Amino acid sequence: MTFTNVTVAGGTGLLGFHIAEALLNDGSFKVKILRRLPETPNDKADSLASKGATIVYADYNQHDSLVKALRGTDALISTASPGLATGGYDFDTLQTPLLNAAKAAGVKRFIPSEFGIDYAVGDHLITDTKASFREKVVNSGLEYTIILNGLFTAYLGWLAFDIQNKTATFYADGNTVVAATSLSDIGKFTAESLKLEESRNATLRVAGSRLSLNEILEKFEQATGSKWKVVVDKEVKHRFQNNIDPVPSPMDFFKAISLEKPSLENIDNDKFSFSPRPLIDDINALVQMASM
Ligand SMILES: NC(=O)c1ccc[n+]([C@@H]2O[C@H](COP(=O)([O-])OP(=O)(O)OC[C@H]3O[C@@H](n4cnc5c(N)ncnc54)[C@H](OP(=O)(O)O)[C@@H]3O)[C@@H](O)[C@H]2O)c1
């Protein structure tokens, strides 16, 4: 099946922008960015519109409004996020209206807002809402692709590597293998997935790199030209779940969960036409950003 008209819900977001850019750079897609009403000024939307994207708005609580915005769409890529930084966590409630409207509007393929790791039900409240929504997508009758890319390389600092203080904090063994991918490569993988036969009703696992925490630390040390301090704390999950002092923050608990299954086995990179950029390029960019 050929997908020409592609809509990105949440295309103004951190990842959605890079996926929309990759679709536009590819040159074979007509790209729409679906935004929430009310209309608000947005630099990323302006930038994508200047490259040829159409910006459409809908009220996620109004089925007809969403259906109207999605008419003519062949593939809907959801990168919508419930605003984790401000306490939102429910990907299922957020995306269910999108899925219902996509069916009503005749959308052929749905790519849900996953873009992470292989989690299991019961791991965490946030991923549980992704899991329940994933089930709805799989049973929807629409074609689907689940894209797993490990961690965003842009999030390595947040996860474990504090560049300002040259300190690595490991909530898992240093030999834990972490799959990580740059935002621009996730964009390219997602855009190209629409052209792959193997992406139909499938989970595709892709990774820019698969290195252990210790190996990633070596790259941060190389990029900063200094030896880092390492703090190891493997009890974060246990202390959080059992309310033991010092009780970790919910964010530190989420980091510990993220490091439980970050390795992504059976990578599908060889199905794609390009090689992802080397991790050191992203680490150098993170180090440069931290010095600004
Ligand atoms: N693997 C990793 O390391 C990693 C890291 C971060 C995120 N992720 C995943 O990547 C996906 C995208 O995350 P992101 O950080 O790029 O998202 P984001 O920037 O937080 O948000 C994406 C877009 O969602 C829309 N949005 C925000 N709040 C909303 C709400 N309450 N209701 C409806 N739409 C809302 C907004 O678009 P408009 O305002 O234009 O409508 C926003 O630009 C998610 O599945 C997330 O879990 C993975």
UniProtKB/TrEMBL annotation:
CDD domains: PCBER_SDR_a. Keywords: NADP, Oxidoreductase. It comes from the Eukaryota. SUPFAM superfamilies: NAD(P)-binding Rossmann-fold domains (SSF51735). Residues 5-239 form the NmrA-like domain. InterPro entries: NAD(P)-bd_dom_sf (IPR036291), NmrA-like (IPR008030), NmrA/Isoflavone_reductase-like (IPR051609), PCBER-like (IPR045312). One of its GO terms (molecular function) is oxidoreductase activity. This is 1798_t:CDS:1. It comes from Paraglomus brasilianum.
